C-alpha cells in the first residue's frame, strides 16, 4: 500500500532551523522541503519518456526553488519580498500549481502508479528529520501543505506595517488588510481540501506514519487559525468604521474566540516536540487569549447598556475578564516570541492597538462607577458566558485541478 520511512539524523541534516524569523503577525509553519525523486527509474517502464521528463522537470524546479527559499525564509527575505512584491513566494506557488495537474495523473482512477515513486520531504515540526513514502497521495498532501504555508507567508507580508514615505509611524493600508483576508481564505481552502479530499485517500497505515506537520490536527489548526486571523482583520476594519455597531463588533470577536478555541483543541494533544511545533502551540494560545479579551470587552460594553443592577454587575465581570485575558495574552505573546526560532512582535496596530488602550481604561472606569453604585454582592465573581454565534467565515472552495491533458495522450499510446 506504499512504503514509508521516517529518519532522524544527529547532525540535523538538511533541516532548516533559523535562529530568528523576524517580525511575525501570522504564524507560518516551518517550510517543508521536497528532496529529489527518481521518476525515470520508477516510471520509465510504464510511461512515455516525455511524460516522465515533464514530471521530473516540474518537481525538480520546486526542489530547487524551495531549497533556495528555505534559508531566507526569515526577516531579511521578508523585507526583500516586500520591496519587490513577494515575487519569490509567488513563483514557487505557481510552480506548485503547474506541478499538481501532472502529478494527479499518478493517482487517476486508482492507478497502481501511485505507489511506484518514493517521495521524500524534510519535516519541520516532527522529530523525524524527513519522511519518505511511496505514495503519490502523500506528495499531493505535501504540495497542498506547502501552498498553504506560502499563502500564510504572503499574508504575513501584507500585514507587516511599512515605513511611510514621510518617515513617520509605520502604516498599514486598508487595501493590504482586505487583501490579507482573501489570502487567509485561500490558505484555509488548500488545507480544507487536504483534510476532506486527500487525507481520506491514504491508507490507515500511512496516515498513522505521516509526520506531525501533516497530522490532521495540525492541518485543522492551521485552517482554523487562518480563518481566525481573517476575522481579526474584519474586526479591526469594523473598529475603524463609524457604521459598525457594538453588536457587530461583539459578534466578530465571539466568532474569533470559537475559531481559536477549535484550533487549540486540535493542536493541544499532538506531539509537537521541537522548536517549530512548540512555537505553533504558543501562537494559538496567544491568539486565543487575545480573542477572549476582545469578546469579553464588547460583551461587557453591551451588558453595561442595560438598566438593571444585574446587567451592570455582569458588565463589570465581563470587563474584568477582558482585562485579565489581555494581561495573559501579553505573557503568552512574550513566550511565543522568546521560543525558538526567535521572533519579534511588529508594532501594534488594528484590533490589539485599540483594545490594549481601551480595555484597561474602560475596565477601571466601569468597575469604579459600578462599585460606587452597588454593593459588592451585585457584582459577579466570574465572567458571564459569551454569546454563541454561528461561524460565518469559510475557507475558499478549492478543488484539486483536472488531470493534465498529457495523461490523455499517454492513455492513447498505451492502447
Using brief descriptors, characterize the structure shown:
415 residues, 6 strands, Serine Threonine Protein Phosphatase 5, Tetratricopeptide repeat, two-stranded parallel ribbon, 4-stranded antiparallel sheet, mainly alpha
Shape: elongated
**How would a crystallographer describe the biggest sheet?**
4 strands, antiparallel
* Strand line-up across the major sheet: 1-5-4-3
Pairing-aware structural class of the strands and helices? Answer: mainly alpha
Q: How many domains is the backbone divided into?
A: 1
Number of helices: 13
CATH fold-level name: Serine Threonine Protein Phosphatase 5, Tetratricopeptide repeat
Report the mean per-residue pLDDT as an integer.
Answer: 87
CATH class: Mainly Alpha
Radius of gyration: 24 Å
Instruction: Report the portion of residues in β strands.
Output: 5-15%
User: What is the CATH superfamily?
Assistant: alix/aip1 like domains
InterPro entries: BRO1_dom, BRO1_sf, BROX
Protein name: BRO1 domain-containing protein
Domain BRO1: 29-415
Family: Belongs to the BROX family.
Give a verbal description of the structure:
- This is BRO1 domain-containing protein.
- Pfam families: BRO1 (PF03097).
- The chain has 415 residues and is mainly α.
- The chain is 59% helix and 5% strand.
- The protein has a single domain, classed as Serine Threonine Protein Phosphatase 5, Tetratricopeptide repeat (Alpha Horseshoe).
- It has helices spanning 39-43, 49-69, 75-83, 87-103, 136-159, 174-198, 204-208, 216-240, 246-267, 275-303, 309-338, 350-373, 406-414, and strands at residues 4-7, 20-23, 33-34, 119-122, 130-133, 342-344.
- Helix 8 (216-240) runs antiparallel to helix 9 (246-267) and helix 8 (216-240) packs across helix 12 (350-373).
- It is elongated, with a radius of gyration of 24 Å.
- Mean pLDDT is 87; it is low at 9-13 and 74-86.
